[in-house]
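Run MASP1 through structure prediction, thanks.
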Amino acid sequence: VETEDQVLATFCGRETTDTEQTPGQEVVLSPGSFMSITFRSDFSDEERFTGFDAHYMAVDVDECTEREDEELSCDHYCHNYIGGYYCSCRFGYILHTDNRTCRVECSDNLFTQQTGVITSPDFPNPYPKSSECLYTIELEEGFMISLQFEDIFDIEDHPEVSCPYDYIKIKAGPKVLGPYCGEKAPEPINTQSHSVQILFRSDNSGENRGWRLSYRATGNECPKLQPPIHGKIEPLQTTYSFKDQVLISCDTGYKVLKDNVEMDTFQMECLKEGTWSNRIPTCKSKKTLLAGYKGHEPPALGG
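Sure, done. The structure for MASP1 is below.
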């Protein structure tokens, strides 16, 4: 009894006398869909032998049964039917062209908030195979993004070659950082850019947990401000950064004077280049202002 490349059993003798060489009730199962039986006799039959009688039947193999020495047939769900099987995936996943691996579509992840958290798909569970994910952080020019990976960092690696299988790459402006893989998270990264792309790629093997990072944006800093004499700045901070606004006002009996225009308060903003929108105005005494207007109509008050 043979398959294409293997002898499964050899039988001879009589069941009544040669039990070790006869099949008895033994079931011979082929590993595939092919089996052949070869019967051979020579010329020296001294007795009248009656031959053999064998019955065969096709038995469906359940490819979905877990086998210790092999990988599972399907990544997620396996459906067995007579003569074969097929795979399907959990919601949110797509069946790969190999018809067994489940991947994710993760190329349109856009983050526009100044702080956030980004993870590999399914984190902290093993990330999907055969996937390519792109995460984009896009903020207004004038902000700089910093990245902080958490301690749990598990991406398939190789002991001799740098990240040949799965990896993260980070693109910040003209700079490309990485690839990163293994079990040691990268150190905190200050990208010096308002636009960052994070590329995560996985191949068709491995069971790794993935990664998680948080990002934060800080604005370009503007120079320190000194309040005008007889005036004050609100809010008064040690540092000011992009989009911060301040209001300059004067003590009682004084008015804000900017470009020869008298006003009660004056607002300034820190711009994306790290410069202030205006110079600090001055505070002038109302008496001084009135003396300057003697014989002339005083200018209208500004807002």
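The domain at 67-104 is CATH 2.10.25.10 (Laminin).
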